[in-house]
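Quick one, tokens below:
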């Protein structure tokens, strides 16, 4: 059918519709919603930084490592950046829903995961820089 997303019964309009949780509970103090939005935007900036780092290493430092090693590192950074972008929207929604329904804010392991990814990437690139010299 025209207008349906492949493999689903949903249209783009269904996907882009306001989430159901926005119609539940009570509207939180706008300051908390804005703080949640700023956190979301910070996560998006981090996602973009990971993507920019992946592109920069691939395009500006071709001799930092053998091509297969460089490509694997760059693709991993780009994929982590993409994953973080998706998770940031999901987390924003979870926080908004919790605030609307007077629930405890949900715990997330994403911050631990991101810390580990950035630390491992920093270590890997430090080793590559030292070896390339």
């Amino acid at each position: 059918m025209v207008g349906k997303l492949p493999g689903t019964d949903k249209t783009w309009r269904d996907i882009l519709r306001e989430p159901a949780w926005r119609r539940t509970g009570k509207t939180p103090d706008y300051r908390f919603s804005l703080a949640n939005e700023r956190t979301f935007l910070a996560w998006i900036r981090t996602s973009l930084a990971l993507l920019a780092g992946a592109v920069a290493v691939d395009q500006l430092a071709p001799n930092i490592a053998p091509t297969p090693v460089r490509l694997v590192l760059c693709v991993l950074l780009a994929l982590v950046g993409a994953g973080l972008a998706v998770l940031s929207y999901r987390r924003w929604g979870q926080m908004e829903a919790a605030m609307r329904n007077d629930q405890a804010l949900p715990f997330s392991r994403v911050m631990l995961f991101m810390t580990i990814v950035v630390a491992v990437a920093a270590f890997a690139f430090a080793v590559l820089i030292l070896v390339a010299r």
